[in-house]
Amino acid sequence: MNLKITLFLGVYFVHLFLNAQDFNFAVKKIPDSLQTKANAVLRYCRNEIIIHDEKEITQNFSKAITVLNEEGDHFVDAYTFYSNDSKISKIEAVIYNAQGFEIRKYKKKDFIDQSATSGFYSDHRVKYLRFTPRSYPYTVQFQYTFKTESTAFIPSWMPIEDYSISVQSKEVIVKNENNLHLKVTENNLENFSVQNLSSGTTIRYKLENQKAVKRESYSPSFNKIYPLVKFNLDKFTLKGYTSNAINNWKDFGKWIRNYLYESQLELSPETINTIRDLVKNETDPLQKAKLVYEFMQNKTRYVFVGIGIGGWQPTKASDVDRLGYGDCKGLSNYTKALLDAVGIESNWVILYANEKRDFDKDFNGLQGNHMILNLPKLNKGEDVWLECTSQSLPFGFLGDFTDDREVLVLEKEGGVLKHTPKYLDKNNKRQIVGVVNIDDNGNLSANLSIGSTGILYGDTYRIETHTKKELDKFYKSSRWYYNNNVTIDNVSFENKKDSRSFHENIQLRLGEYGTVLGEEMILRINAFSMFKASAKKETYRKLPLKIKSGFNQTDSLQIQLPENYSITRLPPQKIIKNKFGVYEILVSKIDDKTLKYTRHFYVKEGEYVKEDYNVYCDFIKEVKKYDNLKIAIKNKL
Length: 637
Fold this sequence. Notes:
The structure is a single chain. Strand 32 and strand 33 form a beta hairpin. About 15% of the residues lie in helices and about 40% in strands. The strands form 9 sheets. The protein has an 8-stranded mixed sheet, with no helix packed on it. An 8-stranded mixed sheet has the order 25-26-24-23-30-34-33-32. Strands 20-19-18-21-22 form a 5-stranded antiparallel sheet. By secondary structure, the protein is α+β, with helices and mostly antiparallel strands. Helix 4 (about 285-300) crosses helix 6 and helix 5 crosses helix 6. The chain is globular and about 95 Å long. The chain is built from 9 helices and 36 strands.
């Protein structure tokens, strides 16, 4: 089964108990409406969380899920984590066939038990079910009881956990035995039939008969649309450390920094002397920081590590220095320790990476899945942000992995929410300039110069480390997959890290690019910038249109025609302008044997009403039509 291990908050996400022997798991008992557009059906899910006090929580978790087809396998998620301050007292699973008959039972001893990390020693372990289905549908009933002495991680409740899974019944019950100050934060409940059944010191939410949600193209992030309820105590314990009352981000950040992070910064005297010697001739703090960053990149590599307090405390800087590897927390912490050694201020940053997601301002508790560094006002009064997990990323460049989102910065005075830099649409550029030659048989040869900046730099610069075989695959199967008979004769790169621009100089051939039909040869005029994305119209669109990243592309190609061919007719100029961007192409005549092809395609990032989606589809359809524009040239002989 697909085992998901999340860096931060996933460490204590699910645990269980429910007696459901009388439940009929036959697939025929599932209403047809819940099977429509679904790959799996959550028959029931009950998570009972008992907060005994500030130092102890028990979770009784149980669920049964019917998997309708192979694409639903990943919804099973029959696993739980534990460590030396937690205990799984019960864990079991039962597999049922489509008729609801039991076919196999798993006890605690039957679950795979292994370290939840790689590389370092860790006290975090995971128990998970390994099951390979022989037929579909099938049902997995999974339950366990879990007790922990860390109360900082109270599992959130997601009544709708993903697309293509329907819900018969799902509930969360939080029993606050000693009436501690428990904060409940609700997101996106208003458009869903979530019942709030809370009473007294017991918090209870429930959702029933929720049809599967269809994924819609170009829609906002899942977490911005679908329901989520989060819980946190203002006083909690994390691996033996008990917090004071925390009611704001400043206090939360200060506690995390003081108790979990600052103790991890120790470096050996030898390493301190080495890094100070490296920067001794440099007076500019920005250049000093750059030298330190490059030292870290050259010395370390990234590995996933879940060691430490709840997955939150970094590996000691001295251990990363000795071993030469670490995860995002360890490498960021190591870089901070090196910067401290040369007098450069930096702060740990906790954030959500990959999918663009902001910290929830109203929930001052444990969030995020990644760590970077913030160097305040280091570059002409502007902050510098460092991604420490890449050996090749330029100093101060984030890319779309962590750009443009609300993050938590752990400053000396406490936690502060800041926003990472945004890469503007107009600066996300790709420019192709080149000379193209067509021979009498329709074979194409070209010398191209391709420059990329902004987000498109981040998408491209890594290819300079590719082997010849990897490069060949990249150009043939990814960049120009729509061309047949691609031969790359020569490639060279220029990576200007200071300006974040990457240049490819390419000599290539496309065999039989032009189609000879009698006296004419048919050519697709755009050989190298076909727009790849598609957008299919939707009759019953429910979600807004979200264009998550804009870009700005320009082509300027000189096309040399075969000796014995001449131009018969040129297509007219095409210009499309609307709220989503601009598309423009022009084919002009330089002389009888030479054409000039120019193309400009600019797409704006933004969120638009759902009615705009089909209008955007028409725009993309028109772009793809003109990207596929063909011209005919005639043989004079």
